[in-house]
Structures
1.
Amino acid sequence: MASAASHCRSVIFAKRNILYNIAVRQSRLLFSTNDATSDGQRKPSQRIKSQNNSPRTDHLSWEERLADVVTPLWRLSYEEQLEVKRKHQQRILSQLAGHLTGDPQGSPVRGKLGFPVLPVLPSPVRDGYRNKSTFSVNRGADGNPKTVGFYVGTGRKGNIVCVNGDHLLNMPEKHKLVARCYQDFLRLSPLEPCLLFHAGGHWREVTARTNAEGHTMAIVYFHPQGLTREEVAAHKAELVEYFTLGPGSVCQLDSLYFQESGMTRCSHEESPYQLLHGQPHIYEEVLGYKFRISADAFFQVNRAAAEVLYTTVRHLCFPTPEDGGGTTTKPGGTLLDVCCGTGAIGITVSPRVDRIIGVELIEQAVEDARHNAALNKVLNCEFVAGKAEVVLPAVMSQLSAAGGGPLAAVVNPARAGLHHRVVRALRNQPAIRRLVYVSCKPDGEAMRNFRELCCAPDPRKKLWGDAFSPSLAVPVDMFPHTPHCEVVLLFERSCSRRTRAADGAITTRFGGIL
């Protein structure tokens, strides 16, 4: 009996090691490609390029293959997932350290960190955390072209299979329900799906957005091809009837949008989102503030982890050390919020500062930011629409002329990082002593930004200002079951006694992790 039990334990242990190694291999492959699943500021990956050296998956079910693509760490315990992410962030930041110490290759082996890196701050919610999911349409494993889900395979190899995502750990049930109902609608519709633009077809992806209260927005994307306006209107009416009176009414949609376009991706300005049913917005609450969510507005996909992220950013931008009486003091000054989106960071930081200036490219996001500030009765925020590299020099001149208290900056760009002219404007503004960089992909273009912020003055690149130095890194797990997380990097030019005291208080706020 004892021998049998021991054998059973050995088999279980060996099987767990195999699964662990598979998950780690999957995560390493994803870490090495730009096509990995992400999402802070982007749609969830729908197709991920197969790697030539990836382990064979023929023995796995389609559901397992999809889970390995979208949530490659799903086989690991959450503690093991955090450890995988911690090691990856250490490698990335060691590469930065290598660049700063003169290693031209930025070797992660030779680079020794000269600043502390906290352990990955965990997500309070680990399953079903996504508040936005985009589902593709393509041929399923059974050959049906009207299958709604996520891609496995690549177009180049011609082996794309669309697999239903009902089993994915990061998807909430409401999103899965919307996808199932949309698939049912497509199979009832006389129109074909648009798999390739040049091949015809009409129905494309569907996006589901939800908030903590369960309010749901669906956005259907449609290629008109050669249909007349009257024909398109008839099919829109069928879509509305299905989701309001037909089987799709189980989704209880608060908003149903329709975007008609011949492009793969386009903004509201290029092709307006048409509200077919319900309310134009849903709302989400973060750290006691309420935010309006439009059809194309960026919002962190994990609300609970966003609270951890924004709290971290708030403490790093403007630490509040205790004064002699045991109470915290307000730092004051100005926060420059670059790539501000709908204003979430600025609004949550607003009680600590005198003034917030947000800069954002997308007009609709700026409208949402202004609305959110008014909705929350935040009076010290102003938001400017335009390319940051165009708007920022004028904003900097205005701030220089006004003078005033301390000036800090926070940047939260997309995966492409900051335009070099934005980095130049930040670097050449001597009043900015503290800069917080939030990155969803620090080993991508953001690394170039880090180097330009921290290199010696370089007249050829018009980088005249004093160099920044990294002083603290805080990874935050926004995407459980995937290899990705957000990294909050604090850069400073000088560190006053008061600032050092404030940074000491951060240790306590983060639970003594540092």
2.
Amino acid sequence: MEATDAIADALVSGDGQEQTEQRASPKTEKPQTKTKMEQIFGFKKEDLSSWKNLVTLLNRPTDPASLGIFRCMFGLVMAIDVTQERGLSHLDYKYLDGAPVCRFPLFNFLQPLPLDWMYLVYMVMFLGALGIMLGCFYRLSCLMFISTYWYIFFLDKTAWNNHSYLYGLIGFQLTLMDGNRYWSVDGWRRPSIRNAHVPLWNYTLLRTQIFIVYFIAGIKKLDSDWVGGYSMSYLAHHWLFDPFKVILPVELVSLLVVHGGGLFLDLTAGYLLFFDATRPVAFFFVSYFHCMNSQLFSIGMFPYTMLATSPLFCYPDWPRRFFARFPSFLQAVLPVTTPETQQSTSCIYPEAQSTSTEQQGTPAAATASKLRLKHKLAAIFTILYIVEQFFLPYSHFITQGYNNWTNGLYGYSWDMMVHSRSHQHVKITYKDGRTGEIGYLNPGVFTQSRRWKDHGDMLKQYATCLNQFLPRYNISDPEIYFDIWVSINDRFQQRIFDPRVDVVKAEWSPFQPNPWLMPLLVDLSPWRTKFQEIEGSLDNQTEVVFIADFPGLHLENFVSEDLGNTSIHVLQGQVNVEVVEEKKNHTLQPGEQIQVPAGAYHKVYTVSEGPSCYMYIYVNTTEAALLENFTKLFELQERVRNGTETEPLPPELQPLMAPDDEGSEANATDPIVQLFLKRQRRLKEVKKRREAGVLERLERFAVKKYYTMRRSFLMTAIAMRNLAVGLPPLEQLTREVAFANMKEPQAEANQDERLKDEVGHGEL
């Protein structure tokens, strides 16, 4: 991929380029007039006319400045990422030595090392990222980073996502590139490589990779769910979109801004960054987009990494012109700003340039101009890599076993945010293979992840793991059955896997369709418009859940006592509702409904030939009563504070007069008052955080990162000490870990903890 006029030594671009041309050609030679194609794309049609010309083009000498700055920024964000999304700060929680934990590696033979050795792996990865940033022992640092990074990546599929995959790809690319030719420790140590040209394919590969990230993500959004505004409809309610809500209703903000804007940006960003005329516009929108993503999603350093990739589309000498504007006393620590560059054997130089240099007594250029095997291999690798990256997102016909309502082997398809899911009901049933005893497991037992619910490969691994652990609890030859209900992109809640299949014995292959995967009922997608109408007709205290089920199956459900006035309304098909305690059966046709008792089990059988569709309508009476009490307490508190309340407050309500702090909560004897005060304090904190100024936000960000890194480094130091001299006494180890666990005051106050005591929506 080639950015417009983005090749130093070949394109006309201001003063820096003119100086490059003067160095590259004899003084008597006049500058050549560039064709329109060369001005727009940076190369001539003749450069693609033969294999030799293509190899020469891809190995054309290019300014190393932009690549060097990107290398530095990428290494920095990866060093920070190691402590955050890679998990160094909470490694002891993730890899518990000796604990019965089910894990989900790509290959089952991959297992984590003992905890202290895992800290060593992470330390190698961190030092590799630091070496990349500094350009110090560059190749070794890249190898240290990517070897440990891909090991961690393959070790846990539950942490897979597209941007984690992207980090590994960029690290792999940098390993093969000459990223240490500019502003690097290696350049300071070895003057022969300092400020030396890099071949054009170094930029071509990175630019193409970023183009693919944007463009394929846009192609994947040309999906009826995304175009219809169903994939990320909840985002429109975020406060970041409040400015748009001033002129548009929430529904149009979701459709036009969230989905339409996201689709347009992904499809066009790569092209807009490509051309000189549109690049400033692209910089603005891309930067705005990634800054919003950093606030909308918990995606670690991805927005900052993508911001760091945008300058790659500029002229490669942009850092020289940028840093040349800084005061002269800073030049000693800033990158080189002089336009002179050294020649490199990694590049192929024009014959005129090499002949001129030979006459000046420097034969190195003549050797560099020869077409060598490494130049051909670099061109072959570049072409094959680009083809492979365009192919992989559409290779799901190969990895069919991973195609569970998503696009194949998730995490490398660039289908970012295309699917949103909600889970209404998860049940794990075990059966003793010898006694026939049936029991139920808490969903998520023996695992730290919730992602297994959506992927058949993980479900198979989870069932196999449970099969190994349950015999410890006197359950012999266990059979494991999963009943998982999922709604994807605001559809009906429906089963994703067949609940009648023992997953322990079930067949699964990465290259064959999953036989126990239930089909997505896409024929029922048009019902989503009706869902919106039904939800809009209900009051704020009434909730609705839409269910679709297959013939021959049934839903066993328990209605919590918190839920009052719960009824089942049939929308399509025919169902039979059995109230277990009453031992009664009721057959319902479309348009009919039945009240189901709270605090009791019932079963809904689908008896029609096709899928049945029905909905639960209920009121969370406990929550409604709580909110009503909160409203009364708030009104009373306001009257007390503005002096309009003349009656003395009873003792249980007197804490309402105290300031909104933790002390008032502790003094409250009435649990409703205590919850109210806690809720008020949290709302005040949220408002304060949202209205915080830039400096306060930066301070909060820096403090949070400091304590994250502090724990990472202290725990790593403890692990390295353990490996070197052995474990200390338990009391000493406890004190050391407690010191590493010290947090900032706000974190100790658990500001982000939800109001667990408040009654939420009961699970249907």
